[in-house]
Amino acid sequence: MKRLQTQEGCFVHPTTYEPLRFIEVVIVDSGKLSRNYYKDDKLVCWSFDCDFPDNRVLESNVQSSRCMDCSKSIKAGQNKGGAACKYFTNIKVAFPETDFLYELRLGGLSLFSKEDNKMNLYKYIEHLERNREHVGNVLTQIYFVQQRSFYKMYFKPVRPLAEDELINIQQLNQVAETNPFKEQDMANPTHVIKDVVAQYPRIDKPYKWDDAQGRSVPCDAMEDGASYDLSFKMEEKQAKEIHGLMEKAWKEKCAADSSFPKNQKLKVKFKKQDDGTFIGKASLKAAYSGNSTSIEQFDSKNKVLDPGFQLTTGSIVSIAVEFFPYKMSGGGVSLRLRGVQVKKYIPYKPASPFEVEEDGFTVDEGSSSPFTAVDSDDGFESSTTSEPDPFDNEDEEEPVKEPVKRKKKKDIVEEDDDDIEDIISSWGSDD
Asked: What integer pLDDT is reported at residue 427 of this predicted model?
């Protein structure tokens, strides 16, 4: 994780390197109160819990077995700079427009300053809690104020985060701690939603919404808003089952995290259709911390499909999802897409711009295709091997052809070698 640099009362922008008098970030982790002791400008002893020296401190540099008993942590009467062992903490912050977490170091003056009209970190957190808000749900301005020969950092709220911002920030924080793309490392409950109908799948590559075109378009994984999305249709019974599991994940998260709202019923996010079915949606952000993601697709035999395999609307699939609770807008649970198994593949059929004609040529007339279309209820397999036609009887005798009277040479009429081919233009999208 990169350290957010400061210089002479300014923040150094992590990508443009321009000096900033203030930054607007989300405080993802408010850090842990710690202490460090410098001797001759060299760090010799430190503690990340203010109880005991860190186990990496050299034995010869340990000032005391317990911090509370250490003389370096006690403010001496003649020492105007306070105790020799100073408080500090490292907080994690994220800029809403980026996909990276940064570490920001705060000294004791930015943690415990006593100005009435400005808020240090701990005073700021208390202020938010009194207003029933959590520091991780708010865009925060951190700014410098000069006092004599040094600078202090102060904090003030800018605005609450939008729901999509909050979800992205929470996912980003989990990625910084673990690898969420491995089943054993997932921080939240997982579930496989079986045998649902795919709707408008966009999982072969990253997509984002384009206002100018009024639709989702392919994009680079690192672009803002890039994601993988899959809507799916399910029966009412299955929708109730999944909502019940989401509600369980919500209650468990509320019990484990005091910042989540209490005694609040989880809202149903599925959309009911006229035919009584329900539409759900699962998504995955296309990149975290500068690392791109992908959605693995499998056939019915669990063989991994080729990258770029294009799932179609109407195909029967099973979906692996992770239940991800969030707090914004009263809270909820999103479905984070983890993988897709194609149980029955519906071949792509281009949309025709023409009307159906009562009379005229049809594909069944005069077809010279050597293949036979066979409907099958079997699961989709990525490898396509030709099966023998059960209606093709090789032992059947070929009918005897009626003799044809040979024409005289003068009766033979030469035919035109150039046949007219019917060209069918297809366009459109399955979406």
From this structure: 35
* CA neighbor of 196 nearest in space, from 342, 373, 60: 342
Residue 314 predicted with pLDDT over 50? yes
Token pair for residue 301? 């035999």
Q: Which of 102, 120, 100 is nearest to 111 (CA)?
A: 120
Spatial contact of 260 and 166, defined as CB atoms under 8 Å apart? no
- pTM higher than 0.90, yes or no? no
Instruction: Please give the pLDDT value at position 419.
Output: 41
Q: Which two tokens stand for residue 191?
A: 């579930």
Q: Report d(CA 193, CA 18) in Å as an integer.
A: 48
Structure tokens at 403: 């003799």
Question: Residue 114: what pLDDT?
Answer: 72
* C-alpha to C-alpha distances, 431 to 111, 310, 351, 355, nearest whole angstrom: 53, 12, 10, 20
Task: Check if the beta carbon of residue 328 is closer than 8 Å to that of residue 162.
Answer: yes
Structural domain boundaries, residue 340: 166-344
Residue 100 lies in a domain: yes
* DSSP labels, 376-393: --SPP-SS--PPPPTT--
Residue 149's Cα: distance from chain center in Å?
45
3-state SS, residue 98: coil
| Torsion (CA) 12, 18, 23, 26 in degrees, nearest 10 | -70
Quote the radius of gyration of the chain (alpha carbons, Å): 33
The span from the CA of 239 to the CA of 279, in Å, is 9
Whether 282 maps to a domain, the answer reads: yes
Task: Mark whether 136 and 177 lie in a shared domain.
Answer: no
CA-closest candidate to residue 283, choices 173, 399, 167, 377? 167
Question: What phi and psi, each to the nearest 5 degrees, are found at residue 206?
Answer: -65, 145
What are the backbone dihedrals phi and psi of residue 76, each rounded to the nearest 5 degrees, phi first?
Answer: -85, 145
| Cα-Cα-Cα-Cα dihedral sign, residues 315, 318, 321, 323 | positive
> Are residues 121 and 215 located together in one domain of the fold?
no
Q: How far apart are CA 85 and CA 90, in angstroms?
A: 16
Cα 160 to Cα 188: distance, rounded to the nearest angstrom = 24
Place of tokens 């807008």: 329
